[in-house]
Amino acid sequence: MDKHYVCPSCGGVSNHPKECDTQGCKLQGQPLVSCPCSDGRHEGVMGQKDQPEV
Ligand SMILES: [Zn+2]
Ligand SMILES: [Zn+2]
Predict the structure, then answer these.
(1) Which of 7, 10, 27, 48 is deepest in the core (most CB within 10 A)?
(2) In angstroms, what is the span from residue 2 Cα to ligand 1's centroid?
(3) Which ligand places an atom closest to the C-alpha of 27?
């Protein structure tokens, strides 16, 4: 998995820098965070706990 960008709130992923565009996400309009993970879990961005707010 190449470097990608993740929203730490809703878990949205993009291959390029952008703002979160998820309706209702509390970080909508905020830039996604670059993530270097290779397993798709985005642990560095999402934090230690799996608590995506849907
Ligand atoms: Zn989001
Ligand atoms: Zn990741």
Answers:
(1) 7
(2) 20
(3) 1
Identify which of 24, 48, 40, 25 has the alpha carbon closest to the alpha carbon of residue 7. Answer: 25
pLDDT tens column, 1-54: 689 999 999 999 999 999 999 999 999 999 999 999 999 999 889 875 555 555
pTM for the model: 0.79
Span from the CA of 29 to the centroid of ligand 2 (angstroms): 20
How many A from CA of 46 to the centre of ligand 1?
Answer: 11
Dist CA 33 CA 17 (whole Å): 8
Structural domain boundaries of the chain?
1-46
